[in-house]
Structures are given as structure tokens and as C-alpha cells.
Amino acid sequence: MIEYTAKVKSFLSQDPIPFLIGGSWQKSSENQVFDVENPSDQSLLGKVSRANANDTVKAVERADEAFNSWKKVSPKERAALLYKLADLCERDAEELAQLEALDVGKSVNNARGFDVPFGIESLRYYASLIENKAFEKSLHLDGVSGKSVRLPYGVVAFIFPWNFPLTLCMWGIGPALAAGNTVVIKPAAVTPLSTLYLGALAQEAGFPDGVVNIVPARGADAGDVLTSHPKVKCLSFTGSSEVGKTIGQNCGFNLKPAKLELGGKGAAVVFDDADLDNAATGLAGAITLNTGQVCCTATRWIIHESVMESFVEKVKDVLSKTNVAPGMDEASEMGPVVSEKQLNSIFNYIEKGKTEGAQVILGGNRINVDGLKGYYMAPTLLQGTEENICFEEEIFGPVAYITSFKDEADAIRQVNSLDYGLANSVWTEDAVRAERVAKEMVAGNSWINAHNVFAYGLPYGGVNGSGNGGGVNSVETLFDYTRSLSIAQPVLVEELV
Ligand code: NAD
């Protein structure tokens, strides 16, 4: 197990850890706190001041005041601040990785290798875009001379889930700040630590007071304010489809644009000509990464009937060797589930799935790791027909549900039989078939011979039950955080001749 760095120790020793409004670190106006637990052993990591609705209103007001000056800051200066923040995150990469491993339970090596560096890249990607991107386009039209201009909204509110707190935060605030908005961030109450640490780095980088505000609050406390306050001009929500519907409804009622990045139930279709070793390793990795608590990961494995037996043998072999260990253990390949509530929810699904006829062919049980009281479970494989709750609903744990298919049409039908539409993958050595199936699977992302493929410039988002937000990580995301303004005047006929 690795030692906490001195900065992590000092950060966690604050009692309570305050939140950030208008450039000042504050305690809850009602002195309330969240206990933040380490899911690897149930120890108390720290107490975080809990923001309430009044605190959230204050954060929105400070963000709105800050916008008056922030909107005059040039794209070049904004880019410089984002680069500076990226450099500071790199300086404190180990602290950020440790906080993520402690708070979420994820493997510290995964946090070092993906969560932190890929998050930092978001800041640099959007900084480079605003250095080079024109926010104004001249238009010479029939009888009209004009310009199409993109301007920041003002205050953008973010509500984030608990599974990738740091990376998702950087995916969101990178483009929003680059576009010239101020932000109010509501992290999930279970995993607020890395977001608060990031807030301190944003201050150190020199973002003016009130540009970045962070309010760890209960969902509904902050949600009601953020979806209705007239000074919040745009809201970005990442989380479950269920809560997303409420947020979308409230924003719709208040005519507020809402980006919704929601849940998923990704499928992986493995054809008979697939490289089965590659598929077994890739799909085992898909359910052990972040302990399967990944919105886009493959949790329905749709396998050609002729290779079912050999695929299942291979994937069981890989999964049985997974080292399940605490997040802070450098050898950990899969940590605990984030909380007792989440663990219970996963086992409820497994039990219901069994009563509906699913066979547990691997795992399905809680496991003891070194006598620790963490929320550990074994990677789990269920097998059965499509008529099963575990095929239909998002479980959000290290669990895959396996069905078989006879032909391509049957596989595509199974993939598209749910309302979710976030990410699927197809595994085959036939490039023409791969492309054809990739286009037939209805989702925001189709991956070939791999699952969970990300790059800046590659839009990542969901459709149908998985979201309507236009996604993240691309040029378009930057424009999602801007409003459109057309400036025009008629051109007199004499001027034309
Ligand atoms: P959740 O929907 O329960 O909570 C998400 C956030 O919403 C939390 O901060 C929570 O406090 C807040 N919230 C809850 N009720 C609210 C309300 N009434 N008003 C305002 N805010 C409210 O989701 P979760 O359990 O934290 O995260 C897991 C879910 O997130 C999964 O469904 C997963 O697929 C999804 N997710 C999606 C993406 C994506 O990019 N599409 C990424 C990560 C996670």
C-alpha cells in the first residue's frame, strides 16, 4: 500500500474541508458536513462541508458577478490560465491520483495512467482550440452583410456523478472556461475530494475569484437552484438517466439549455471470426476498469453461438486472475465498489437476475480482501436470455451478462433492443462487416475490436436514453458552451454595384 503524500495528508487534515465560493473557502452556512469514506476499508477520509440551497444561490451570484470581468478576458489570456492549471495538475498528479484512489476506490495506477493525465489533456486541448479558433464568422449574403458570433453563456452549472469525478470535471470545465463562462460545480457527495483539490489549483493558477465555484451538496438541494436560478444560463449534467430526466424536465420548464450525458448498457458483439484472446482480454478489462462503474462500458456480451464455449473459457480465465485489492495498492487491478449502497444495488440486480433465470457462471459474491472492511466483490458473469433485468438495466458494477446470437441481424437486433444508446463494440476480423455493424448499432459510439476508446477530437456522447447533450471531448463541445449571436445590416443596392 502506498503512503499518502504530505499534500494529501494536509488536504485531508482540514476539519472540515471547506468549499469554494467567490474565491473564498467556506464552511456550510448551517455547519453541516458529509463524511467521506474510503470504500477500500470503510475508514473515514475526512469531513467535507456540505453546501445547502442558500450556499448554492451564493455560488451562482458570485459566478455571475465574476462573469462581468471574465467576459472581457481575451481567449489568449484564458488559454494561458488553462495551460497554467494543466501544469499545476501535472505537478500534483500524484496527489490527484491518490485522492481518486482513496475516494472512489479505483486502482491508483489506473488513476495515474488515465484519470489524471487524460483529464489534464482536456484543459490543454481546449486551451489550444481557443488560441486558434475563430468565434466570429463574416457572412456576405443576399442583401445582407453580417457576422455570426459565438459568445459565452455566462454562468454554467455542472452536476457530476461519483465514478470519474476528476476526469469528468475536467471534460466539462475545460471547454466551458475556455469558451469564457464562469462555472458552478456540484460534485457527487460520495466523491468530492479531487474536485475540491482541483479548485485550489485553479485559484493558484490565477483564475479570478468567482470564475470557479464548487458546492458539494445533496442532489436536490443544489439541483433545484441550478435548474431554476435565472442567472444559470446553461446546465451540464452527467449521471443516471433517471435523474437526467428530472434535470431535463426542470431545465425545460425554465427554458434553460441542458447538456445531458447519461447512463448506458453497452453491448459487445463477438463474431465467430474474432480474435477471441483479444476479445476476452478487452472485455474482461471493460468490466474490471473502475470496478465496472463506467457508463459506456460493455455489460451485455452478445457472442456468436459457435464460439460461445471457447470465448467463455478464455474470459473466465482472465477474470479469475484479476487482482482485487484496495485502490492504494499499486498492484490492484480492480478496487472495491464505491459504497455499501452501490454494492447492495449490484447484488439486488444479481439476485433478481437469478430469479428470472440467469446462471451465474463466475463470481456473484462479495469477497474478503486482507480482512479489510471494503466493498469488494468478484468479477461476475451471468448467462441467460434477453428477457432478464440484468440484460435490460444498468447494474454499474463488475458484472457482464452474456447472450448468444445466430446471425448478424440477430446480434444487431439484440444490441438495439434497449433505449440506451451510449457505446457498443463489434469484434471481428472482417473490416467490412465491422464497419457495417458499427453503423447499424444505435448509439453515440461504436468501437471496433476494443471497448472504451477515447481521444480529444473524437466526440463522445449518447443518444436516446443515454443523453441529448452533444457529447464531450470535441470541437463541438466548445460551442455547446456558447450562445449564438447574429449581427447584420442590409446592404444598399448602390453599395452592391
Ligand atoms: P446520479 O444520477 O444518481 O447522480 C449524479 C449527480 O446528480 C450527483 O451529483 C447527484 O448528487 C446529483 N443528483 C441526484 N439527484 C438530483 C436532483 N434531483 N437534482 C440535481 N442533482 C441531483 O448518478 P451517479 O449514481 O452519481 O452516477 C452513475 C450514473 O452516471 C450512471 O448511470 C452512469 O452511467 C452515469 N454516467 C454517465 C456518463 C456519461 O458520460 N454519459 C459518465 C459517467 C457516469
From TrEMBL:
<dbReference type="InterPro" id="IPR016162">
    <property type="entry name" value="Ald_DH_N"/>
</dbReference>
<dbReference type="InterPro" id="IPR016163">
    <property type="entry name" value="Ald_DH_C"/>
</dbReference>
<protein>
    <submittedName>
        <fullName>Aldehyde dehydrogenase</fullName>
    </submittedName>
</protein>
<dbReference type="InterPro" id="IPR016161">
    <property type="entry name" value="Ald_DH/histidinol_DH"/>
</dbReference>
<dbReference type="Pfam" id="PF00171">
    <property type="entry name" value="Aldedh"/>
</dbReference>
<comment type="similarity">
    <text>Belongs to the aldehyde dehydrogenase family.</text>
</comment>
<dbReference type="GO" id="GO:0016620">
    <property type="term" value="F:oxidoreductase activity, acting on the aldehyde or oxo group of donors, NAD or NADP as acceptor"/>
</dbReference>
<feature type="domain" description="Aldehyde dehydrogenase">
    <location>
        <begin position="25"/>
        <end position="483"/>
    </location>
</feature>
<dbReference type="InterPro" id="IPR015590">
    <property type="entry name" value="Aldehyde_DH_dom"/>
</dbReference>
<keyword id="KW-0560">Oxidoreductase</keyword>
